[in-house]
Structures are given as C-alpha cells and as structure tokens.
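During the no-cost extension, the postdoctoral fellow (Dr. R.K.) reprocessed legacy sequence entries with the updated structure-token encoder. One reprocessed record is reproduced below for audit purposes.
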Amino acid sequence: FKLIDRDARTATVFERADAAAPVGEFVPTRIDEIDIDANAAGATRLSYQVSGGKAFLETAIADPPSITCNGSWSTIERGCSALKYVYADVPTGVPGLRKRLTGIKLRTYAPELVGNSNATCDTSGPTDKMCEIAVASYAYDSAGRLYQAWDPRLPTLKTTYAYSSGTVPGSPFV
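Re-encoded structure tokens follow.
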C-alpha cells in the first residue's frame, strides 16, 4: 500500500516483508518525493529504495518546463531525462554502513549514441533513441571509504583519495 504525506511531499510504499511474514506485517520499500501537482510540467520526481531501514536515492526524473514526463526510468520518452543511482554492498569495518554509491547513469534522448559502446540505447517504440550512459563511478577501499571517483567515459582520469589511519567511514573529510 502507499501512504501519502502531502505536508512532507512524500509517498511511502509498503510491501509485505516476505511471503512467510504474518498477514498485515509490511515494511517500507520505497519513498517517492512528490510535487503537490506531480503531473505539472517542470516537476522533478525523486524515488528512494529502502534497504536495511535506510532510504537510498534511486532515481531522479526531471521534466523540462514544457513537458510532463510520465513513467519510470525505463519508460520515459524523448524530451525527458533521468538519473539512476547504483549502489553495492562494500566492506566497511563499521556495522550498518555497507551500502555505497558505486555509479550514476543518465537516461536521455541521444540519437548520436546509438551503436556507441559507451551507451545502451533503445532502438524502437516510444523510447526509440533513449540512451543510458554511465556518467560517474566510485570505488571504495577495504574500510569503506571513497578511494576513487571518475567519469567512465574518461576512465584514465581518476581522482584518488587517501586517508590517515584514524579516518573512520561516515566521518567528515578533513
């Protein structure tokens, strides 16, 4: 079921924890940030995936001022753009701090990228020439700290980070 909080401008989706869960036992699985007029042109919709009791930004779909982009990451059409945030579990040495952002993908209309090895493009139907392009990648060290950040389209240009032995994951950079 979906719980909508118009004051906080969110919609929280609840689903059964698993098939064996008692009837009526639900957990939040997704949080969508909603515009009060979510169908208005120029709105941005954010979706969060809930994992381990924490919300992780999953997608951001931006409508240009003159278009309403209905649909999801895989169904938006020409004129619309979206970002998808990719996460993975990495060892951190700190309980509860395992999930890390490992990449960001852009989905947009890009006919010039059809057939390009750096993009995955639809080639028919209403999403024809809508392409997914990896635009950011992140790597972490064995303690779960950001180690490298780069644009996958320019893989030889990586920013590398180093930490002193006392730096703990989750603490601010100094």
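The mean pLDDT is 79. Residues 41 and 152 are 31 Å apart (CA to CA). The remaining legacy entries will be reprocessed before the final report is submitted.
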